[in-house]
Each structure stands twice: as C-alpha cells, then as structure tokens.
Design a protein that fits this description.
Layout lengths: L8 E4 L6 E8 L4 H9 L7 E10 L1 H14 L6 E2 L5 H10 L12 H38 L6 H13 L2 H23 L8 H39 L2 H7 L4 H38 L5 H11 L2 H27 L5 H32 L3
Parallel strand pairs: 2-3, 3-4
Antiparallel strand pairs: 1-2
Helix pairs in contact: 1-2, 2-3, 4-11, 5-9, 6-7, 6-9, 7-9, 7-11, 7-12, 9-11, 11-12
C-alpha cells in the first residue's frame, strides 16, 4: 500500500490577506515542515481554511490549534473538512493536558499564587451572593405562586437532613457536654467552685456549642450530599434535560433543600442543646456529687432565656450557608467524576470555614451588644 506523502502547503488569499488556505498532508511525518510553515505566516492572518487538507492526524491538528492559541484566534476561525471535525474536537478537549512544569517556590511566585487565590475566593463570594439573591427571588415567587413548591421533595429532604442526622447530633452533643463539664470541674475544684459547672455548660451550649456542632455535622454530612447529588445530575446532563422541559432547576433542586435545612437545623440545634445539658447533668451526678434535681434547680435560677434565643437565632443563617454552598458547588460541576469529587471537597471546606467565621463574628457582636 502506498502512503501519500504530499508536502503540506499554505497560500495566502490574494483577495483577502487575512485568510490562508492549507493543502497537502498534515501528519506526523511532516511535523517539522508544519511548524516552519505556521511560523512564517504573516501577522495579519486571522482565518485559516483547512478544508483543502487531504490527510491530517493528531499532530497536524495540534499544530493548528496551538497556532490559533498563540495568535489569540477563536476556534471558529479555523475551518476543517466535515470528516476531520471529530478528530479536531477530541484534540481540542485533551490538547492542553500536558505535564505541569515544576512549581516555583520563589517569593514572587508565592505572591502570585496568593493573589490568584484571593481573586478566586473573591469570585466565589460574588457567586455565592448572586446565588443567594436568585434564591430569595425564587422564594418570593413561590409565595405568590404556591403551586411551584415541591412539597414532597421538601419533606423527603427534611427526613434526610433532620431525622437521619438526629442520633449523631445528639450523641456528639451529649459527649461534648460531658467533656466540658469534666474539664470545667477539674479547674473549678481547686477553688471549691464546682457548682459553677452548671453555668459553664449551660451558657456554652445554649449560646455556642449546640448550634456550632450541629452546623459542622450538617456541613460535612448534608452539604457534601447536596453537592454530590446535584453534581451527579449535572455530569449526566439531567439538569440540561430539566431546562429543556421548561422547568426551573432552582425550584426543582435547590429550594426544597434550602427549606428543609431552614426547618430542621433549628430543631436539631434544640436537640443538641438538650443533649449537651444532659451530658453536664450526667457528669454532675456521677463526678461532682451534684444531684440532677439540684443541677436543674441551679440552672433554672441562673440561666436566662436570652442565651437560648441567641444560640437559636444563628441556626437559620447557618442553614442558608450550608444549603447555598452545597447546591452552588453541585451546579458548578464540569461533567467529570473528578470534578464531582473536587466540588464535594470544596463544599465541605467552605461550609465549615464560613460557619466558624460567622459564629465567631456573631459571638463578638452579641458580646458587645451585651445580649
């Protein structure tokens, strides 16, 4: 069998100097000639007509794509034969997957990475705020048009978010409450003030630990689940199918999850408060010789309702943060399994970090307001 080794050629269109016509065989056997031809093309060339090429392989296509990238030309400016389009599409998808250069650990490179990271974080915050606004608009629309509410999906997510997480939240809160009571008693025993363990555990759990522990558990459990579920739908193009059917993905996928979190996170926070207080009662009864009746009476005398309200007021804010980040990261999945994993990890990290930051800011604000 004879192989056509016609030389690759290019001709600048006399009528249109910005256009060049290619012909011949653009294959690996002529790789050196291809590079020389493309380097000699005039700067005014912005359109490449490759329909005259007889034979082309991945090396020829890659040379043309890199030429377009160097000149800043869009892919639409390169015209290929119909039977070459599939190869061009495949090479375009994988053409940039080359091994990364060694990381530069210099000072300027570190500043460059820091600046890029700060810019990316700023973009994430902007996207999150925009997503919050979009969901608030859709929630107001549901108030005007209640038929848009997916009640069955909302109840289903309430079960997953709330009932399924309740044993874990209660157990962790109980154990943390017992640990705080034990550590507090170890210090206060030196001053003969073990009775103040009641105030320590009660105020700590009612104001901070209950809502924070619940939010962290749901950030790791629920936000990751939301991202994985929506991301899998995005990778399988189910969200595109939903939009093709004329349905709104926000109404269908995001709003039910947000409403489920807004309802269940305050309830789980209340359960965590009770479990944490029970842990303090247990340590008081078995380690501090404080009977449960005395412990509860002391708590009734010293603890104010405002501590309970301060802790519970943070729950809806944390629910919004967890739901919005979990769903937004899922909608940003690119379509591959690797992207699903990366977005799920990013969702957990972002939600836990933002919950802790917001809790710290709220604690400082409530303290300065003397609430």
């Amino acid at each position: 069998m004879t192989i056509d080794r016609a030389r690759p050629q290019c001709h600048v269109d006399q009528a249109d100097p910005a256009r060049v016509r290619l012909s011949g065989t653009w294959t690996l056997a002529n790789a050196v000639s291809l590079a020389d031809i493309l380097k000699r093309l005039p700067e005014q060339v912005v359109r490449v007509d490759a329909t005259g090429i007889d034979r082309v392989d991945s090396a020829g296509v890659l040379q043309l794509l890199r030429f377009a990238k160097r000149r800043g030309l869009p892919l639409e400016n390169l015209s290929f034969r119909r039977d070459h389009q599939a190869l061009v599409g495949v090479i375009d998808d994988v053409g940039d997957e080359r091994p990364k250069s060694r990381r530069d650990y210099g000072f300027l490179a570190a500043l460059d990475r820091l600046g890029r990271r700060m810019y990316e974080n700023g973009q994430e915050i902007r996207l999150l705020l925009g997503f919050l606004g979009e969901n608030l608009v859709k929630l107001l629309r549901i108030l005007r048009e209640p038929r848009r509410l997916r009640l069955t999906a909302t109840v289903h997510h309430m079960e997953q978010v709330g009932l399924d997480a309740m044993p874990l939240v209660a157990l962790l809160s109980y154990l943390v409450g017992a640990v705080i009571a034990f550590l507090g008693s170890t210090i206060l025993r030196d001053f003969g003030a073990e009775i103040y363990v009641v105030e320590l555990v009660s105020i700590a759990f009612l104001r901070e630990f209950a809502v924070l522990l619940t939010a962290i558990v749901l950030a790791g459990r629920t936000a990751s689940a939301f991202t994985a579920q929506i991301g899998a739908m995005k990778s399988r193009e189910e969200i595109d199918a939903i939009q093709t059917l004329g349905l709104d993905p926000i109404d269908l996928l995001v709003i039910p999850r947000l409403l489920a979190l807004l309802v269940m996170l305050p309830l789980l926070t209340f359960i965590a408060m009770m479990a944490g207080l029970a842990g303090g009662v247990t340590v008081g009864a078995f380690d501090l010789d404080i009977p449960p009746q005395m412990y509860i009476a002391r708590m009734h005398e010293t603890i104010e309702v405002r501590h309970f309200l301060v802790g519970l007021s943070k729950a809806p804010v944390f629910a919004l943060v967890i739901g919005l980040i979990g769903c937004l990261e899922g909608l940003q999945v690119k379509g591959t399994a690797q992207s699903v994993g990366e977005r799920t990890t990013s969702s957990v990290v972002q939600t836990i970090s933002l919950v802790i930051i917001l809790d710290a800011l709220a604690a400082l604000w409530f303290m300065h307001m003397d609430w």
